[in-house]
Amino acid sequence: MTETSGERILEGVCAADGLVVGRAVPLVSSAHVHRAAGSPGEERGVLVQAIAHASEQLDKLAQSQDEMGAEILEFQTALLEDEDLLAPVYAAVETGLPADQAWMRVIDGEIVEYREGEDDYFRARADDLLDLRDRVLSVLQGKEPARIELDGDIIVARDLTPSRFLELDWSVYRGAALCGGSPTSHVAILARARGIPLVVGLEDALETLQEACPAVLDAESGRLILGPTPGTLEEIAGRLHARKADDAAARSLIGEAAATARGEHVEILINADDPRVLAEVPVAQCDGIGLTRTEFLFSDGMLPDAQKQYEVYRDLVTWAEGRPVIIRTLDAGGDKPIPGVTVDDESNPFLGLRGVRLSLITPEVLKQQLRALARAAALGPLKIMIPMVTVPEEVDAVRALLNAVLSELAAEGVAHARPQIGMMVEVPAAALTAERFKVDFFSIGSNDLIQYTTACARDNPAVTRLANPKNPAVLELIRRTVEAAARMGVEVSLCGDMASDPERIPDLLDCGLRRLSVAPAQVGRVKLAVRRYG
Length: 534
Known about the structure:
- The chain is an alpha/beta fold and 534 residues long.
- The chain is built from 19 helices and 18 strands.
- Strands 1, 2, 3, 4, 5, 6, 7, 8, 9 and 10 form a 10-stranded mixed beta sheet that branches. It has a 5-stranded parallel beta sheet with strand order 13-14-15-16-17. A 3-stranded parallel beta sheet has the order 12-11-18.
- Helix 1 packs across helix 5, helix 4 runs antiparallel to helix 5 and helix 9 crosses helix 19.
- The two termini are 38 Å apart.
- The mean pLDDT is 87.
């Protein structure tokens, strides 16, 4: 923390962009309540009822949420039905522990294991367990949820659980600052989707904020400024004015083709994290789909058959109306475990069996996906992108499987076409030797490229400042890939978070990129950044 003339600046990490000027108020948790315990049988009954009541609360809350919020809450409800999670709690009750103490002891242990584990996915999901712990505990102890006692604009809290975030009225509150949290948590995802500025990792925020006070939540820079000086407020007012002007300019460009100040065309495609979002995106706003993450098809733990996948891919091609559609094969592993597919208990999942490495040891899963993709390619310009490629032999192996699938479809008389095959460039070894790979296109995955180049886990706030997209080594690898693609005469794009960040657009254009795949919500702002280049 820095302090100047009474102004206190707390440094954190941006989880959802924005600027808010107003009053910061603490979110106050109710005190722990001790309850009288009954017999083990009585306590088990109390616990069963509390879990059922908590599940009802989550179901009711889910009914008032959009699809994203509802899915997060449904995930929590599923945890409340997980026998492996609940069995140790019931066993603790049988030893004579009161229901609330048994619940807290077991779930706290699980939370610690999640947070201290090496699997980044489970570290991020610790918040869901914390959410469930507090909800069931509140029911058991008859406690009120955390509350805000004063009027304000910026919520300051030790942390926010997903269900608590969804319960708060964000038409009243305009931003949040958290002592803990992670840019990859469910709360961060919800905040970005709803346009709620959020800063995380402000370790001493609650200790510093004893009562409501004037504040600035500078989520652009990852800061909470308490008691801002007149000079700071003037500077923030200028930035707010500029943001408002940029928003208007971006809206005016969203339906136009992207071009630099010199008139050079830049293709703007969109990322389809979940194809359901495309219902709200006019196809005329973009030049196609530059990345479809197919992990959502496997999110319920079920392996979708080729027909189900084909129907989804068909709808994407239909939506694109002749524009290219790039679909990435299953990128499981790392922070995306899938039951029945990924390997459990890897010591370092990000450096283990993920992406194409995993697909090639589960070839039947990959063949089902290739079959569906080849069928959908008969309907339009669909392209296949292979994730986490390190050596050319991996591309060759996928192409061999595709050839086998095409032969099978031809023998069966099923309509199909041969899709182009490209690869993600996210491993430094691939970026340095791009010309060795016989592919139809490259797509640079900046998130993992930054992670692997800087040796910084992308979801660890402690090393966020080192995982810098402007690191000269990162930009050099991007530039080398673009130059290699030019020599090979193949397309190259970038589909990571760098492409959705207007501040990074000049760097990417300087590297020679003229094809970017961005988050749908950022299309206008990226086109504005392109317009200002050169």
